[in-house]
Design goal:
The structure holds 2 protein chains of 2 kinds.
Chain A lengths: L9 H17 L7 H27 L2 H10 L1 H32 L5 H9 L6 H12 L5 H10 L10 H27 L2 H9 L4 H12 L1 H17 L2 H5 L5 H12 L2 H26 L23 H32 L1 H8 E2 L2 E2 H32 L3 H9 L8 H15 L7 H25 L3 H9 L4 H30 L2 H6 L7 H10 L3 H24 L6
Antiparallel strand pairs in A: 1-2
Helix pairs in contact in A: 2-14, 2-17, 2-18, 2-19, 4-5, 4-8, 4-11, 6-8, 6-15, 8-11, 9-10, 11-14, 13-14, 13-19, 14-19, 15-25, 16-25, 17-18, 17-20, 17-22, 19-20, 20-22, 21-22, 22-25, 24-25
Chain B lengths: L1 E10 L9 E9 L3 E5 L6 H9 L6 E6 L2 E4 L12 E4 L11 H6 L7 H14 L15 H13 L5 E5 L7 H17 L4 E5 L2 H7 L2 E6 L2 E6 L1 H6 L4 H6 L4 E8 L2 E4 L2 E3 L10 E6 L4 E5 L5 E8 L3 E8 L4 E7 L9 E6 L7 E3 L3
Parallel strand pairs in B: 3-8, 3-9, 6-7, 7-8
Antiparallel strand pairs in B: 1-2, 1-4, 4-5, 9-10, 11-12, 11-14, 12-13, 14-20, 15-19, 16-17, 16-19, 17-18
Classes of the chains: A mainly alpha, B alpha+beta.
Chain lengths: 559, 348
């Protein structure tokens, strides 16, 4: 430990040390974060380039394109999109929060099973749910109207799933689980003493609920609502299927049909602007949404007896589960059996052109798996930098890595088409561009998961490893990494799940003939071959359920 | 032999108003337990982390066993310093069992030696039967002992302990104090121990270093620091002194509760303050006395009385628990220390 053993020659020390001292002043923990900061910065750059590019294209579009869109379409699209977003967010909030109250705070019969039933619709892509309900309820030729007509001998009016109300209905059914999960956790972690204090201060139960219980859950509810809102902005499949035009579907049409890229860029710019505003609100609410942290003094709030409302509550809960889970899965299963029993259909299910069922499944699996792997790997330096070296720069980088939420699949597709054509043409028309789109879109989930995992690991553990003779890298590999691995896997599972379900970016970016399960289901269903699409759709739902149930088991309410 | 020598150590954080550690120097002998004590935010923990190599000093030098660990040119990373550390939250690796936690710092040694050392330490801290347990299945006291064993296992030149007992409840804390001190003494370990608890500091330390606002205020034996405080802050922090003003006269100091006859190295007429603790003041009921009882606090073996002097100053004094005097009773208060009091020049 004398001078000649010093880790570097003195001549090199002073500039390096000055650099270190500078970075030290920004952080509280020592060890040089320069390399880490560089890696995290590169990841952030990779994520932010497509977004910035689209903005530049939108702003740089010729005035004529803006003019044309402003006159004709923009206001209507904006109105349509916002209306659907508000309706679905509101509906999902009411449904999700009330179902959470029923399973977490009341004595609803079978609530243990309902917890799973309310969460599992997350494994069903909304457009697949939409396909099933459309087939059932279509005004002309739908299964239900036909059945009723045969039974009653005359045409009967049934509500149409097309248009605004249909789209809102379907999207509420398949997005309310977000709110359900977040508010369920909030209900569950709430201290009993909170409500007891209100009661002691003279509040009746109902007033207690509205003035204490619900406000205390606000962070959880808000987080759920904003997630739903971002999801609706990005939704393509359902709105296209049910013929309700929003920004996403309009951009898709511009891109695939009319091939007007500058109009698409303008629309994308507006859409991304909208999403960025919501994302900003979401990031602000996130800091306060620490609702799953339980203290040791936690005591569950007492279960509320439903009494004479038991049966109506049970009927409502069963109705929600029936329409959001049992009907889609049941119908898909029935169609799948029909498809397998009919030799002609079976043949076209297994082989369409040169591609077979196993090809679609394999394509779905490997692209989603690779995206999950990449997203998690890239998220680790970002999370390490932001959690272990908190500073304005690292917080900024972590925020930037959340932009994927604000870039709907169609916009990512547009941006990548334009960017890759210009700069990396060898990537164009390869499946890897699809994987890149998944990573860009789902990176925020990976970053959040890694940050959460790392926050659980006390930095003193790494310091203990350092003092016990480990270099920073060894401490990371031997102590930090084994401890955050379950959290990283959860993040990977989430990215895998959402990539499997992704539709618009895959449709727009895939090389000709590269079909995934989601794409095949969509194409067949669009052509009206519901029975033929069913086995692939069912398979997609079932493999989505695997990572989903792994994720749910990590949640407090499913333990 | 000098185990640790710290020279002019300074460290300032980006956000801090004043330096976290400000020109601190001290040295400690092999086998000594040095306690860094002071209120929270005084720089004691930062000093410890600088010695460990977990923070990089802005200036100053650190020598371990006579060799440079940190200076202007050299900064040894923590893994090269050969130091053992016990963390405030114990920082046991949750994915390793007790045995592997203790063996963690022994990597690279022959496996026979590792096994022998770990068992030796398990034995010493009395945890042999729990070797295969994981940290989450241990009690607070057991975790504490594992953390100590892990720090001691590689036979470090120096052991650092950062408020190691603060997560334990009071009874256990007193018990652990005794066990840990005798263990450290039996191993003749050199220890730097950080605490904010003055009583713990007096118990644990061979010497105490009292910190305030990043500065080392006094370094000395527990007795020196307590009875012969170097600064007003030290007198106040160690033993909750109150301050009574007085004036230097020939033969002692004149105060409103009488003359204190003790030699003073200050010119006659100087305004001074005397540090007065509960045991330094005596009083008896007297209707024409100079103070009145404002509160009696029952402490079990004794009653602590809060007395308001006619000047408005409030002092505390104790009596045995059988003596009960009512609030409002007029009394005559009198300094009766039986030892020289700490005297400081009045601040204004």
């Amino acid at each position: 430990m004398n001078r000649s053993d010093a880790p570097m020659p003195p001549a090199l020390v002073s500039p390096l040390q000055r650099l270190r001292a500078a970075s030290n002043r920004l952080t509280t923990r020592s060890a040089s974060p320069t390399l880490l900061a560089g890696l995290a910065g590169l990841v952030a750059l990779f994520l932010v380039v497509p977004l910035v590019y689209i903005f530049l294209r939108a702003v740089g579009a010729d005035g004529e394109a803006w003019q044309r869109l402003l006159q004709a379409r923009l206001w209507k699209l904006l109105g349509n999109t916002l209306l659907l977003m508000l309706a679905v967010t509101g509906g999902a909030l009411v449904t999700g929060a009330s179902m959470a109250w029923l399973t977490e705070r009341s004595d609803l019969p079978g609530r243990k099973y309902f917890r799973w039933m309310f969460a599992l619709p997350l494994a069903i892509p909304a457009y697949i749910g939409g396909i099933v309900h459309l087939a059932l309820l279509r005004p002309r030729g739908g299964m239900l109207p036909r059945l009723l007509e045969n039974l009653l001998g005359q045409p009967v009016y049934t509500p149409s799933p097309l248009g605004f109300w249909g789209a809102a209905f379907i999207l509420i059914l398949f997005t309310f689980p977000y709110v359900y999960l977040l508010s369920g956790a909030a209900f569950r972690s709430q201290h009993a003493s909170l409500e007891e204090a209100a009661r002691m201060l003279g509040y009746r139960p109902l007033r207690t609920f509205f003035s204490v219980t619900l406000p205390a859950m606000r962070p959880g509810l808000l987080a759920g609502a904003l997630l739903v809102a971002l999801d609706i902005l990005a939704e393509y499949g359902t709105v296209a299927l049910l013929r309700y035009e929003t920004f996403s579907s309009a951009i898709f049409v511009q891109l695939s049909g009319r091939y007007d890229r500058s109009a698409a860029a303008v629309l994308s710019g507006v859409l991304v602007g909208l999403a960025v505003i919501i994302l900003w609100a979401e990031l602000r609410s996130q800091g306060q949404a620490r609702f799953t942290q339980m203290e040791s003094s936690w005591r569950p709030a007492p279960t509320i007896r439903l009494g004479k409302w038991r049966i109506p509550a049970l009927l409502v809960a069963a109705g929600v589960t029936f329409t959001s889970l049992l009907v889609p899965v049941g119908v898909l299963a029935t169609w799948s059996i029909q498809a397998v029993l009919d030799p002609d259909t079976l043949r076209s299910v297994l082989h369409s052109g040169s591609m077979g069922f196993s090809n679609f499944a394999w394509n779905s699996l490997w692209t989603s798996f690779l995206a999950a792997l990449l997203a998690i790997t890239l998220s680790v330096p970002v999370a390490l930098f932001s959690v272990r070296h908190p500073s304005r720069i690292s917080r900024f980088i972590a925020r930037v890595c959340q932009v994927g939420y604000a870039i709907p699949g169609v916009v990512i597709a547009l941006s990548l088409v334009l960017l890759v054509n210009r700069t990396l043409p060898f990537l164009y028309a390869t499946p890897f561009i699809v994987v890149i789109a998944y990573v860009l879109r789902h990176m925020p989930q990976a970053v959040r998961a890694s940050e959460a995992a790392l926050n659980q690991v006390s930095p003193t553990l790494e310091e203990a490893a350092r003092v016990s003779g480990r270099t920073p890298v060894q401490a990371l590999l031997q102590v930090t990494f084994p401890l955050i691995l379950p959290g990283l896997l959860a993040g990977g599972a989430l990215v895998f799940l959402t990539s499997l379900k992704e539709l618009p970016a895959t449709l727009l970016l895939r090389p000709a003939g590269f079909d995934t399960l989601a794409v095949r289901v969509w194409m067949w269903a669009n052509d009206g071959f519901y029975v033929q699409a069913a086995p692939a759709a069912l398979f997609l739902v079932l493999i989505s359920a695997v990572p989903l149930s792994f994720l749910l088991r990590r949640e407090q309410i499913f333990k | 032999m000098i185990a640790l020598d710290v020279q002019h150590l300074s460290k300032r954080f980006y956000s801090g108003q004043y330096p976290a550690v400000n020109d601190v120097s001290f040295a400690m002998q092999q086998g000594e337990i040095l306690v860094l004590v002071g209120p929270s935010g005084c720089g004691k923990t930062t000093t410890l982390r600088l010695i460990a190599g977990l923070e990089r000093p802005d200036s100053g030098e650190i020598y371990l066993d006579g060799q440079v660990a940190a200076s202007r040119e050299i900064f040894l990373p923590p893994e090269q310093r050969g130091i053992g550390m016990v963390f405030q939250d114990h920082a046991l690796f949750p994915h390793l069992n007790v045995y592997d936690n203790i063996a963690f710092g022994l990597r690279g040694r022959p496996s026979v030696e590792i096994r022998q050392t770990v068992h030796e330490l398990l034995n010493m801290v009395g945890l042999e039967p729990l070797a295969k347990r994981y940290p989450h299945a241990l009690s607070g006291g057991e975790r504490q002992r594992v953390a100590l064993a892990r720090a001691l296992a590689p036979h470090p030149v120096l052991v650092l302990m950062d408020e190691p007992f603060s997560s334990l409840d009071t009874d256990l804390r007193l018990e652990m104090r005794e066990q840990v001190r005798s263990l450290l003494k039996a191993m003749n370990a050199s220890v730097v121990f950080v605490t904010h608890d003055q009583e713990e500091a007096l118990y644990m330390g061979d010497r105490l270093a009292v910190f305030q606002q990043g500065r080392l205020e006094q370094l000395g034996t527990p007795e020196q620091v307590f009875q012969n405080s170097a600064t007003r802050f030290v007198a106040e922090f160690m033993g909750n002194s109150a301050f009574l003003s007085g004036e230097v006269i020939p033969g002692g100091i004149q105060t409103e509760v009488g003359l204190v006859s003790q030699p003073v190295n200050l010119p006659t007429g100087s305004r001074v303050e005397l540090a007065v603790r509960v045991d330094d003041l005596d009083f008896y009921p007297d209707p024409t006395g100079n103070a009145v009882i404002v509160e009696r606090i029952f402490r079990g073996v004794q009653n602590v009385y809060r007395l308001r002097l006619d000047s408005g100053l409030t002092l505390q004094a104790f009596k045995e628990h059988i003596t009960m005097l009512p609030v409002g009773q007029r009394i005559q208060a009198k300094l009766n220390p039986g030892h020289p009091l700490n005297v400081f020049l009045a601040s204004h």
